[in-house]
Amino acid sequence: MDAPYPEPSLYTVKAILILDNDGKRLIAKYYDDTYPTAKEQKAFESNLFNKTHRANAEIIMLEGLTCVYRSNVDLFFYVIGSANENELILVSVLNAFYDAISQMLRKNVEKRALLDNLDAIFLAMDEICDGGIIMEADPSIIAQRVIIRNDDIPLGEQTVAQVIQSAKEQIKWSLLK
Known about the structure:
45% of the residues lie in helices and 20% in strands. By secondary structure, it is α+β, with helices and mostly antiparallel strands.
């Protein structure tokens, strides 16, 4: 008989990562216990970066996992799934994540801009995937939800940078009137 197919599951994403051009972690969210410790995660990320930073492909099978990736300027974006996961689904998550970040950063997808907007990037990641289940794959909806959340934060919960940015915007608009 044929080998049995694995049971279908909504838990399609094992991890979403962003590494810099030196292979150092900027953002990483693991949704299962494939790599339970930080040391194992760092080793996997290092191995993944070494295999992909010079390659022109956009998919790799590594350590029994399907890894889709994309690079831009000084960043590497990765979406990790199981070995039997559909690559097209993983690529759609990767593209949604990248395109949402691109919209939020106004096409300025580079390390400095990413670090300046880290809170929004984490929100976008949470909008896309929850516990390994894909929740949204439309980048404009993701970016819109993240931008709305940033605008609706009460003054007492905003960071100093957000308060200063808000004050700058209000002054700019009052001068332009």
